[in-house]
Amino acid sequence: MEPGTQAWLDQVVEPIIDPEREIVDPHHHLWPSGKGLRYFNDELASDTTAGHNVVATVFVECHAAYRKEGPEHLRPVGETQFVAESADALAISHPDAPPISGIVAHADLTLGDRLGDVLDAHSEAAGGRFRGIRDALARSREPEAHRIPAAYAERKAYDPAFRAGVAALGQRGLTYDCWHFHYQNREFLDLARAVPDTTMVLDHFGTPVGVGSFAGRHDDYFEEWKRDIADIASCPNVVAKLGGLAMPDNGFGFDRAPAPPTADEFLAVQRRWYEHAIECFGPERCMFESNFPVDRMAISYTVLWNALKRLASQYSESEQQALFSGTATRVYRL
């Protein structure tokens, strides 16, 4: 049975914990047929209506449906148009599914004077859903070892043009989402300090890597990662998106197991990463995420949110509300 398939995921079915708890899922992707992982409206609706009370979602750029013609810098606007049209169609085809209420799009933040044109075009295409930009810093040291390699410009966080672009987002009230790897956490920290007036979203804990030379070495760098996260949390303009630790490149092995993990099995491996981030940022600056369908290669949507609810049960009601919906609602203006 192939990991990540529905049949493989269906081997673990759990009762829904705290089914009335409102959830805003602030990080998922969509791909049109034939591109990326298969995940479109039917798959999204199947997951978000499977038992948990998901009330809204946020799409995050994934290089889907770019325009094939026209100026290069405007081609990512095709993705925003695709998602806005998908959101409208979802409301009709799956009226019980939560709406896609926000879009985090892509733009080259080094464009200078042309960046404004791209942001305006995203705003126009999004149908009121445009909330921010992700122009990642991720650069794989060993791309051959990654299932999802990345080769963004080296040390892009220090490029004055890039920093000016991140600052321009803040001036428009837009967020900057960042995907990078754990060994780039200090680069992100320097960027956050250099552009304090832009709200920045740290995606996926800074993506701890567990493949290639990092395979089996989480413990070797965990203390360094903890210090980096604490330093990043000292920047009041940064909020943390907590999830995306079930990706194959994280190296926890869920995607290679005969069956997916239960909520308890997931937490046995993941808990320390979540608890440290929440301790550093505080629940009011943290939001749980699914990162689907990438994390779907390792765990089902219902079991993932069960695990997060078990983890969050140690916090107060107001803190749980922040983690599951409040922070995401505030940061993405939903």
TrEMBL record:
Short name of any one Pfam family annotated for the protein: Amidohydro_2
Domain Amidohydrolase-related: 24-334
Listed SUPFAM superfamilies: Metallo-dependent hydrolases
Recorded family membership: Belongs to the metallo-dependent hydrolases superfamily.
Span of the signal peptide: none
Database matches in Gene3D superfamilies: Metal-dependent hydrolases
Protein name per Swiss-Prot or TrEMBL: Amidohydrolase-related domain-containing protein
Highest taxon above the source species: Bacteria
